[in-house]
């Protein structure tokens, strides 16, 4: 049952990968970047990241069944990044400061809160790092203010 649910979701999310590709296309090139995918789900965007980068991708989510799905995809797909999958909450992450070149939150900030997400990530992004957010188009001006006021 779950595999059908995830299959349908994956097909929908696959259609969104073009936006992630667009975001990646405006970033400078990275050699072996360290990437965090927060709320990776079944890994559709994670695998898109892995198409573009040859570094390390840490993929975290609180849904163990979704993570089983990404793990099973990794057994059949060859990717150039080293993908590490962990069942962890974005709210409880602890990393060395300025650890990541890129952080992705695709469909997560509407769950954990926009400003909360920005605050969490600002500590762990390297100085010249990038935060890619895929969020609902709602309260746009207020969100732009929050982005600025959090030092991005
Ligand atoms: C809309 S889905 C997006 C999944 C994936 N990023 C994608 O685009 O296919 C949101 C994901 O966030 C996860 N999630 C919710 N709260 C979380 C938290 N506190 N920490 C990490 N992941 C969380 C959910 O389990 C779910 O997989």
Polypeptide structure, described:
- The longest helix has 13 residues, at 2-14.
- The chain has 7 helices and 5 strands; from the N terminus they run ααβαβαββααβα.
- It starts with a helix and ends with a helix.
- With 152 residues, it is α/β, with parallel strands linked by helices.
- It has a 5-stranded parallel beta sheet with strand order 3-2-1-4-5, with helices on both faces.
- The protein has a single domain (2-149), classed as Vaccinia Virus protein VP39 (Rossmann fold, 3-Layer(aba) Sandwich), CATH 3.40.50.150.
- The protein is 45% helix and 22% strand.
- α2 (17-25) packs parallel to α3.
- It has helices at 2-14, 17-25, 44-52, 64-76, 109-112, 114-124, 140-149; strands at residues 34-38, 56-61, 82-87, 100-106, 125-134.
- Bound molecules: S-adenosylmethionine.
- Residues 13, 38-41, 44-45, 60-63, 66, 89-91, 106-108, 111-112 line the site of S-adenosylmethionine.
């Amino acid at each position: 049952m779950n595999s059908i649910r995830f299959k349908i979701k994956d097909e929908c999310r696959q259609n969104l990968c073009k936006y992630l590709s667009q975001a990646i296309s405006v970033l400078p090139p990275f050699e072996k970047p360290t990437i965090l995918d927060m709320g990776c789900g079944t890994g559709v965007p994670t695998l898109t990241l892995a198409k573009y980068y040859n570094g390390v991708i840490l993929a975290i989510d609180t849904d163990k069944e979704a993570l089983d799905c990404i793990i099973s995809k990794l057994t059949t797909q060859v990717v150039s990044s080293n993908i590490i999958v962990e069942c962890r909450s974005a709210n409880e992450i602890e990393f060395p400061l300025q650890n990541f070149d890129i952080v992705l939150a695709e469909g997560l900030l509407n769950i954990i809160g926009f400003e909360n997400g920005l605050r969490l990530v600002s500590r762990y992004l390297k100085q010249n790092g990038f935060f890619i957010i895929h969020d609902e188009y709602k309260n746009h001006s207020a969100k732009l203010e929050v982005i600025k006021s959090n030092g991005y």
